[in-house]
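Following up on my earlier thread - several people asked me to post the actual chain instead of describing it. Fair enough. Here it is, all 323 residues.
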Amino acid sequence: MFVPFFRKLRCALILAMAGVLGGCSKAVLLSPSGDVAWQLRDIILVSTGLMLLIIVPVIAATLWFAWRYRESNTDAPYSPDWDHSTILELLIWAAPLLIIIALSALTWVSTHQLDPYRPLARLDAQRPIPADTRPLEVQVVALDWKWLFLYPEQGIATVNELAAPVDRPIEFKITSSTVMNSFFIPALAGQIYAMPGMQTRLHAVINHPGVYDGFSANYSGAGFSQMRFKFHGLSQAEFDQWVQAGKASGNTLDRAAYLRLEQPSVATPVQRYGAVDPDLYGAIVDRCVEPGSRCMRDMAEAICRAPRQAALEAPPPGPARPM
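Reply from S.P.:
Thanks for posting it. Predicted structure:
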């Protein structure tokens, strides 16, 4: 009776997996192209393997017990007075405890090694970063509903297009213009949140040339599903050509242009800017792009300065009254 059911269940699972995998060219999380994402993949595999050490025996034991002690098996031993086994208690408690200890150690080590604020120490498992290597700085701004990338060293900016040389460390500085968002390139590294008035960081490196998907991993409104971009892993020569193409666009991203760009839009095409206001990103983080607006940094300094100024302007205390 159960054989046709399990055959149908197996067919349904196969069709479901085919439908899921048919929507993407490959499981990018299990086959990334950046060293940070590769280390994250190893953590996923090790964690899954450790958990399977419990899951597989429990499932196997469940099936074995169901078969062994089925009603029709009159040869199975019947022990109504049995209630304790020291060996079973040790197995039941020791195995999960050891796995939890192993997962805790893995989490502790990987959390420090893969801290997104921590500069990279290697290009991949076989190559350390050369001593004279300078990271490529990319300033990321999450807009509604598009991504703005500023390259302060190159003096250019792009919308919904990102590029970096292969085997060169990248230092992302990430913020948002309005609501909380999440910057995620699965082939490169893990997701990092973008928040207005704050700056988060991410260090990563791409090890293989190609074109990779990037998107928002945090729901942020009506245009969230189309808040996507392409990340290009290029050779140094190709990256230089890409930068020159941006400079040749003739567009300038000043504060007025940014305020126009900041307006909500969906499925925004790629845009390039050959010149960028060098103080624009700082003004975005400090929430003072609009003319006449006061920067958060200035307001914080004024708040901190007020008690000191009040103390300096206060009259000196009078003489103590006799008791």
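The mean pLDDT is 87. That should answer part of your original question.
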